[in-house]
Amino acid sequence: MTTDPVLLGIAGALRAESSNRKLIREAARLFGPCAFVEADLRLPLFDADAEEADGVPAPARKLAEQIAMADAIVISTPEYNKGPPGVLKNALDWSSRTEGNPWAGKPVAVMSAAAGRAGGERAQLVLRSFMVPFQTRILQGPEVHLADCRNQFDDKEQLKGELYVKTLQALMDKLRAEIGR
């Protein structure tokens, strides 16, 4: 008996109605049978003095455990001022402070959703550079840059545009194929 793979979704925005949250949920749907876990990035700001005094906080340890338990990870970032938001960088910083490297060797799909015409392309590029020290297996494409993101989902929170659906499906197929390689 085989079990469904664990797919961890990380939306780089805290808003409940975030287009990036919708995008990782749509990615999970297109990924196919899986145990989908959505990370909570409501973490304290990284502070080395606080870490030294109190250790890594429980929410950051939980995130690291979720990363370690995942068979594959999908991250979607908004673009704020040409880069990923601080909340996402903060989560990456905290995950680097736990024992070992929970990211090592994990297949990771990076996407972006933003209001502008480029769909967060610059933020995605910066996020990819942030991921280098974690030694993940970041997929090199197809790239998903969801432009005009607030108008791209239907009332069931599924993507409306056929090209976006095809591209995201191809990315999720590639991510699934990377599990266990």
UniProtKB/TrEMBL annotation:
InterPro entries: Flavoprotein-like_sf, FMN_Rdtase-like_dom, NAD(P)H-dep_reductase. One of its GO terms (cellular component) is cytosol. Residues 7-146 form the NADPH-dependent FMN reductase-like domain. GO terms for molecular function: FMN binding; oxidoreductase activity. This is NAD(P)H-dependent oxidoreductase. It comes from Sedimentitalea arenosa.
